[in-house]
Amino acid sequence: MVVKATEDPDQVVNNALVRLYSEDGCFEEAVRVFDEMPQRNVVSWNSLIGGLVKKDGVFEAMEAFRIMQGKGMGFSWVTLTTILPVCARVTALVSGKEIHAVMVKSTAKPDAPVLNSLMDMYAKCGAMDYCRRVFYGMQSKDLTSWNTLITGYAINGLMTESMESFQEMICSGFSPDGITFIALLSGCSHAGLTDDGCRLFETMKIEYAVSPTVDHYACLVDVLGRAGRIEEALEIVKNMPFKPTGSIWGSLLNSCRIHGLVPLGEAVAKQLFELEPDNVGNYVMLSNIYASAGMWESVRTVTELIEKMGMKKEAGCSWVHIKGKIHTFVAGGSNEFRNSAEYKEVWKRLMEEAGYVPDTGVVLHDVNEKTRGMWVCGHSERIATMFALINTGSGMPIRITKNLRVCLDCHSWVKIVSKVTGRVIVLRDTNRFHHFKNGMCSCKDYW
């Protein structure tokens, strides 16, 4: 009807079309309408940015926001609650701070949802000092505000502060919900606070009338499994009032990987293959269990199965935000940068001062020692760290995000780099944050 109309559609109609196409996943059509609009307002840009975020175009969404601001378009609170989670996702702390500065200068007062998004951005960029300041500066807090603070402390390995905030929330008259306990239980799991995690699980229903869901049981299984209390974890799975889900079996499989339990890992993997036949991560984890045990024939069998099913293992990828641009690195890539004189000079100096020798045992492939050493030194988080060391000023903190779990040797290497260079390095992997300073990590080598 719009196309057939004799009059050109007005801005309201065009905005509605951009939003409609974006929500329906027809993003090319949304962009076409947006590009053909004679005039655009904040709503137009919000619809475009929202569509980009929905199609997983996080970098494009940030660029669209930058162009929007460059045109003097301004923003609405909807704009900020859309773009702040993007900053959080890619650990773009500088961009997040710039948005915060714009908010401070605004004559309008941001509401709780906007400030909660700001807190979440700071927490997921590993900047808990800023997150805490925003929280305590809020005139009106809701349960989401408290949950964001508690979760932020937990994912950054600050479980003492997370538990203290939980108690403060209770004293302030707020009742916890399921999200609160997911944050606390997950934090206890990654911090090795097994007894605290079990206690929280027992009290959530008795003291706070929060019925555990299957996700809470998955956290409890993870708490016990990571600590090596496998029999107790299996008893939980056997007796819980839910049918075990992929997250439950996944927690158990990860525990088998940590503790080298091959037969149990095979049994758990079998359950996962039936529940999630297309989840390549489960096959990779079983393969890693075999590799750690030196069972290379079994590794090849799993690899052949992955290939036969047409699945591909997710490549290790890390990114770092420097001078307004997000730089992405893939494991084994960036050959031109790694072969540059600058890279070799910095690498040589670091290795000589630290006396570092790669732990090739983390390379779970049946290859010779030289190849193992080359592979481990080409992990994406190392390339990103080296790039940041070369392209940022001395003493500047470095913030890196990785799409997979950081390997043991890279973790050791970053600790060494933080000591030799005096840099604070914040590495966010798929599980949690690692804050490296003076050769130490906030996770205390338990993650």
The assigned structural class equals alpha+beta
* Strand adjacency order, main sheet: 2-1-3-4-5-6
The average pLDDT score comes to 87
Sheet of most strands = 6 strands, mixed
Range of helix content: 55-70%
- Poorly predicted sequence stretches spanning 5 or more consecutive residues: 1-8
Tally of DSSP β-strands:
6
Percentage of residues in DSSP E strands: 5-15%
Oligomerization: single chain
Order of secondary-structure elements: HHHHHHHHHHHHHHHHHHEEHHHHEHEEE
Distance between the termini: 57 Å
* Number of helical segments with 4 or more residues: 23
Q: Cα-atom Rg, whole angstroms?
A: 24 Å
Shape: globular
Describe the protein's topology.
Elements: H1 11-23, H2 27-36, H3 42-54, H4 58-70, H5 77-89, H6 93-105, H7 112-124, H8 128-137, H9 143-155, H10 159-171, H11 178-191, H12 194-206, H13 214-226, H14 230-239, H15 246-259, H16 262-275, H17 280-292, H18 296-308, E1 317-322, E2 325-330, H19 335-338, H20 341-354, H21 369-376, H22 380-391, E3 398-402, H23 408-421, E4 425-428, E5 433-437, E6 440-441
Parallel strand pairs: 3-4
Antiparallel strand pairs: 1-2, 1-3, 4-5, 5-6
Helix pairs in contact: 1-2, 1-3, 2-3, 3-4, 3-5, 4-5, 5-6, 5-7, 7-8, 7-9, 8-9, 9-10, 9-11, 10-11, 11-12, 11-13, 12-13, 13-14, 13-15, 15-16, 15-17, 16-17, 17-18, 20-22
Q: Would you summarize the structure shown here?
A:
The chain is built from 23 helices and 6 strands.
